[in-house]
Each structure stands twice: as C-alpha cells, then as structure tokens.
Design goal:
- This protein is an alpha/beta fold and 258 residues long.
- Helix content is 46%, strand content 14%.
- The chain is built from eight helices and seven strands.
- The protein has helices at 18-29, 41-55, 69-76, 101-129, 150-170, 188-201, 205-213, 224-234, and strands at 9-12, 33-38, 59-63, 83-86, 132-137, 175-182, 246-249.
- Strands 3-2-1-4-5-6-7 form a seven-stranded parallel β-sheet, with helices on both faces.
- Strand 5 (132-137), helix 5 (150-170) and strand 6 form a beta-alpha-beta unit.
- The longest helix is centred in the middle third of the chain and has 29 residues, at 101-129.
- The radius of gyration is 18 Å and the shape is globular.
C-alpha cells in the first residue's frame, strides 16, 4: 500500500533502537525524511546512517535529552514537521511505597509533559498547513494498569487525557493525534523487566521470557517492525478519520471487550 506520505518530514523521538527505531524505519520505507532523536550519539548516528543507506531519504540525527527544554529546542530547530512520533523510555518498576514526589515528577516530565510540549510546538504549523499526524507511543497500562509500573500508569494516563481533548480540537484542521499502546515487545525495555523477574525469582532469562510469552494469546513478544508498520499507517494519508484513539498492540494480552 502506498501510504501517500513520501516527501513528508517527521520527528521521531527515542529512535536509535526499539519501538522508536521501528517507527523511524517504517516511515523511511514510506519515503519520509526523518529527524531522529535519542540521547546516545553513537547509537543514534549508526541508526541514522543505516536508514539513509537503505531507504535513500534525508535523515538528520540530533543527540539530545528530549525531556529538557534545551534538548527540545535543539530538535525542534530542524522543523517544521508534518509528522511527530513521541516516545520516551518508561520509568522503573517498583511498589507504590517505593516512590517519592521526585520520582513522580521525573516520570511526568518524560512521559507526559515532554510529549505535550512537543505537540504544543508543532501543532500550530500543522494546522496552518491543513495536514499533520501525531502518534504518541504510550503503554498498554493505559487500558490495564500494570501493578509494578505505577509511575508509568500515572504519567501515561495523564497524557491520554490531554490527547483525548486536544485531538478533537485540531481534527478539523486536518491534523490527527492518536496513541499506540504497546504490550510486550522484543526491546531493551522488555529485557530490563524480564531481568528484574530473574533477579527477584531466581529463574533463568529463558524461563522468564517463556512465562511471559505464555500470558500473550499470540504466544510471543511483538517486534519493532510490526509496531512501526502500525505507526506508519496512522501517519498515512489513509488515516485521516482516526482521531483520538488508543490502539493496543499487545498480541491480545489485554482481556477487554472495549
């Protein structure tokens, strides 16, 4: 399918690896020029070089901490953007009794306030052009809170509420905002969570992965490539009537009617 977005310009956050990299690759495959962002310069430039070589699109790598004002300014200087994909690593797992105010503020900065600040920066330009796509990578925890991920549950729920109202205010200008809710995917985040199970239960990594895979009806972890394909579709010309939605990509793990 021709997504109809060749020549568009996208900002993809946290895109040196994992789900962000999957999204960047799918957009590059559709002919979209990229501004890729991550904190680690070496891994980011390697990813950017790879996408330039394979897809023959323009790729700019900006190593910066997107959760800071300075980092956002450095990235946004390479706009304007037709497409924005927000993404940031989730906060660490733990128990409700583990976290202080500072932990919540850090989670809110990374997983709620940063995406909001980026949207506030790019939406006016998109609306003026009459076309734009925003996809926020959030979490399955928005639909079904994960007990050990209380910081993520809280921050991402706040972002979801903001998107719910804002998306309907900008849709009439040809701009869509939607959220992708990943379940378990084969990324560094999954490895970190599985490693925590290994430490606390004294089992092997293979056992931890096998046990978690068994909780997923699809019987496996998702891949960054299939996640990226879903993101690219939401960014396409064909998705203009999808507004303010929270789309699960979890292999059926969330057992819910709606």
């Amino acid at each position: 399918m021709d997504l109809g977005i060749a020549g568009k310009r996208a900002l993809v956050c946290a895109s040196s690896k994992g789900l962000g990299r999957g999204c960047a690759e799918a957009l590059a495959d559709a002919g979209v020029d990229l501004v890729m962002n991550a904190r680690g310069a070496e891994a980011l430039e390697a990813a950017a070089h790879d996408l330039r070589a394979r897809y023959q699109v323009n790729v700019t790598a900006v190593a910066a901490d997107i959760t800071t004002e300075a980092g956002r300014a450095a990235v946004l200087a390479h706009g304007p953007f037709d497409i924005l994909v927000t993404n940031a690593g989730g906060p660490p797992p733990g128990l409700w009794s583990d976290w202080a105010r500072e932990d919540f503020i850090k989670a809110l900065d990374a997983n709620m306030l940063t995406p909001i600040a980026l949207m506030q920066s790019v939406l006016p330009g998109m609306m003026a052009k009459g076309w734009g796509r925003v996809v926020n990578i959030t979490s399955v925890s928005v639909k079904a809170p994960v007990p050990v991920l209380g910081l993520s549950n809280a921050a991402r729920a706040g972002l979801t509420g903001f998107v719910g109202g804002t998306s309907r205010q900008v849709a009439g200008k040809g701009v869509t905002i939607n959220n992708l809710l990943p379940g378990i995917h084969a990324t560094d985040r999954a490895i970190a969570l599985d490693a925590a199970v290994v430490r606390t239960r004294g089992i092997s990594m293979e056992e931890a992965i096998s046990e978690r895979s068994a909780t997923i009806p699809a019987g496996r972890y998702g891949t960054p490539a299939e996640f990226g394909a879903a993101c690219a579709f939401l960014c396409s010309q064909h998705a203009g009537f999808i507004v303010g939605q929270n789309i699960l990509l979890d292999g059926g793990a969330t057992n819910a009617t709606l």
